[in-house]
Amino acid sequence: MEKNKRKGDKLKGMEYWKKWCGQAVTRKEEFLGPTTSLQGDNKIVMASEPSTSSAVSNVETESVVSPAPCFMPTTTESKFSQEPTSSSTSSPVTSSLRSAKLDVGFYATEDNIEDEYLKAQILKEPWTPPKDYKFPVSTKRNLRFQMKWMERFPWLAYSEYKSGAYCRICVVMRRSLDEGKRGHQRVGQLVTDPFYKWKNALEVFETLAKSGYHKRNSELTDNFLKIMSSQAVSVDQQLSSERKRQQEENRKKLIPIVKGIIFCGKQGIPLRGKTDSGRIHITPEPEQPLQNEGNFRALLRYAAESGDKNLSEHLVTSQKNALFTSPQIQNEIIDICGKIIQHKIINEVKEANFFAILADETTDIARMEQVSLCLRYIDLKDAKQHKVKEMFLEYIPTVDVTGSGLANLIITALKKHGLECSHVVGQGYDGAAAMSGYLHGAQAYIRHDCPLALYVHCSAHSLNLTIADSCSQADVRNCVGIIQSVGSYFRHSAQRTAVLKEKIRDLLPADHQKSLLAMCETRWVHKHEAVIRFKEIYPAIVHALEELQSSHNKETSQQAVQILKTLRSSNFVMCLVILQKVMSYTLSLSKQLQAINTDIITAFSHVDNVINALQLLRHKVDEEYPHVYEEAKVLLEENGGILLMPRIIGRQLNRSNIPVSDIFTYYKINLFIPFLDHTIQQLIERFTKHRKVISALSGVLPSNFAAGCEIKEAFRMYSAVLPEKSISVIKAELEVWKAAMIFTSPIPKSALECLDNCDQKLYPNIYTLLQILATLPVSTATPERTFSSLRRLKNYLRNTTSENRLNGLALMNIHYGIEIDPNEVVDIFKKKIRRLIL
């Protein structure tokens, strides 16, 4: 019934608007003549213009759906009565439409009027019948609406559309159709239905005026009009201000919690303890934790007790389910912090355009295979000082360690972070077959999706393999094994370590080294340093073993006797001195190859320098070897030994057995020269593949201008990403670049130095090739370093750490210098529904 009634009201409203539009068209023709026509949206359009609909159809289709737009007031008239024309006198057409718009009866069946300015117009200046208006007669007694009633009851309004009376404030301020008797009775006459029973009109008007419903609407009207006149603050604004105040207070409570998590994450401190739930009790309350609650909760308690009133109030007064200190909340905030860091890194990578992949894998404490993914790119923030960055991105757990499995893992991670595979210009891994295999290694599969991703074998790993292969000679291999055994012997016991430190202090007071170094498998520099350190403190080691021979501990004394005899052997001392001599050359190279700012051409120039130095040493072997021999002889004699030549037999399989007449010549021919030759040969062979990689790009460096390197190969490889597609234009640009570098002082040597001197606008192709050259990976030292963080973060006490939490903590700890704004963390944190307004 009600639905049919509303439908009838709609149809009646359409007829009503047709009548007004018809009057408007008639008056328009009288006013403008027959050459114009009225179209929708109150526009006057010349008849020559094409029109798609009549005035009636336009009004019928538009105005019934929503009221016509209201017009803002001017300073010359009432705030809510401005007409839609700039002239002081409205046209008949506009006046007719406006009067229909302000007929209160038209809005009686609407649930709500959304246009606040229209509300104000109806309340202030509704349509009022003119003085000569003839009201319709309703009964046989000729009763009709009286104009004087509107003077007695100011809220009363007459609707020509509905031919009845309304209370306009109840119509406009009504919130729903069920408003009477505290929302339990449906409103009717004077509100949703027109009143036309004029016999009892005054009684009905008086009854409505005294009703609580009408009085409430009157108060709402007064407040509404004051707000529209900017004389008061709306309830919405008041609520908004209160919400903002509450939001600021809640953020002040949450910010210290976020800061505490960031602090623990950056310092690598474990957050959780034995108990992680419940309220954090603040002194002087009698309840104190009986068990260790962990660093995070202890840090919050310390901050609250040290004067953070907002945090203290939050921890004391907040409900237990709104403390935001639980492990689940910690995980969310840690994950957000990690994603903020990742987002900053990804933005830099996208700005750099080109990047290289660095990856390595290891097994964590939980026996889970973890792939450390890092990215190498050029930081372009300072055009005059380019920097190479190698940034850890995430740990990725994996079960499939085949070449295809690892390749899919890396490609999926890149796509997840929104990185384009077409911008990958390099990939660096170790020499494992799963990573470096030519046909089925990860690098081969990745090149299917990333055609420009040139594979570069880790240079530091290549050097490590060079030393390892050089040490495969029996005497040298045994020497390295003994060095490792001696280190393990002293580290096994605090007593033995104390004796060694005492001897170092007594015999070598000027030496700041107090202990032996382990020959770490992943820290390649330590292998070089371990051999050099052993040679330096050799006298202290021998004297410590002499003292430990008389120890009451049977195991200690027995092992001391065995090790001391080995250390005083001629073979060991000669190998130790020779190793120390050669590794003094490769130590600086090992450090240089692991430097992030080193580009691949600069790194290989250092390799060439070391090779040249070792070849010079080999060429001058007759001059250099006597010094090596004399040093070994003195070292051995000063520590209770004597240099002897091993026994020579007719057939020897396990060591060199070249027949010689004296001990000097024996160690020269059988040990020094073979070890030196093997090292040089391994350096040349291991780095030959790297030279093929850089040969195509070396022509853009000033140091290679004289060699006449061609740029055709570089153009063939990278034509897809070069700004210019013509080889002749690129050759001409290279010639101009060469001419410019001649007058540059000092002449740049590395790719980074060239980038600092290369104007991207003048030399766009050269700049791109230099950027690619500087981006090519040199070593995988950065992924190797992240394994140290992995062992610190995921240890035997934290071996169940989830992957998201692990990555968040690792990103905060490894990228210590990347700032995390706690407010940004809260802004992301509040996107999910929370118990507090944030």
From TrEMBL:
Residues 266-440 form the DUF4371 domain. It holds the Pfam family Dimer_Tnp_hAT. InterPro entries: DUF4371, HATC_C_dom, IFN-induced_PKR_regulator, RNaseH-like_sf. GO terms for molecular function: protein dimerization activity. Residues 758-816 form the HAT C-terminal dimerisation domain. Residues 78-94 have a biased composition (Low complexity). Residues 75-94 are annotated as: Disordered. This is 52 kDa repressor of the inhibitor of the protein kinase. It comes from Euphydryas editha. The lineage of its organism: Eukaryota, Metazoa, Ecdysozoa, Arthropoda, Hexapoda.
